[in-house]
């Protein structure tokens, strides 16, 4: 495992698992949201696609997330492994609710200096609504890619629960 994507819906725990896996394997970790959101009011980076392509061209990396459609094929074509956090909606929703509540209450700074604000909870692109409304769609898309002949060389590790993910990660002793 030298070029790894960690995938799943918003709130599944991609960044947390990716950081731990990156440390375990000695891979440089790149958080896709940090690359994507460049500034205040959730501005998208003008160089996101180029930055992602530069990282994907490298020999060793770990990315958490699938990002916009413009970069998905590129990442899958370059990856040698995908770790898929395919958790049930109830698990994801509990996680994303807790995380968004904490971020809103504590006014945590996120990518590009942004914060989750209470008024954003009513928007369709807020992480809670996004996770709820896109869970089945994201799951189906990752499933299609996992069986797509174009990406046949990619090893897919599908983890169905946090307990399974933890056991898998703890069982990793190296590449």
Automatic annotation (TrEMBL):
Gene3D superfamilies: P-loop containing nucleotide triphosphate hydrolases (3.40.50.300). It comes from the Bacteria. InterPro entries: Cytidylate_Kinase-2, P-loop_NTPase. Transmembrane segments: none annotated. This is Topology modulation protein.
């Amino acid at each position: 495992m030298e070029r790894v994507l960690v995938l799943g819906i918003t709130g599944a725990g991609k960044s947390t698992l990716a950081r731990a896996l990156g440390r375990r394997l000695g891979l440089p970790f790149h958080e896709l949201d940090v690359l994507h959101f460049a500034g205040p009011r959730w501005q998208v980076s003008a160089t996101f696609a180029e930055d992602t392509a530069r990282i994907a061209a490298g020999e060793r990396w770990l990315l958490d997330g699938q990002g916009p459609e413009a970069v998905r094929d590129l990442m899958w074509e370059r990856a040698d492994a995908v770790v898929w956090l395919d958790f049930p909606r109830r698990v994801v929703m509990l996680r994303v609710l807790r995380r968004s509540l904490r971020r809103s209450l504590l006014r945590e700074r996120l990518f590009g200096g942004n914060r989750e604000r209470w008024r954003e909870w009513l928007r369709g692109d807020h992480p809670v609504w996004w996770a709820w409304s896109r869970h089945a769609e994201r799951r189906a898309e990752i499933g299609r890619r996992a069986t797509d002949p174009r990406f046949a060389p990619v090893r897919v590790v599908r983890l169905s629960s946090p307990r399974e993910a933890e056991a898998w990660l703890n069982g990793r002793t190296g590449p």
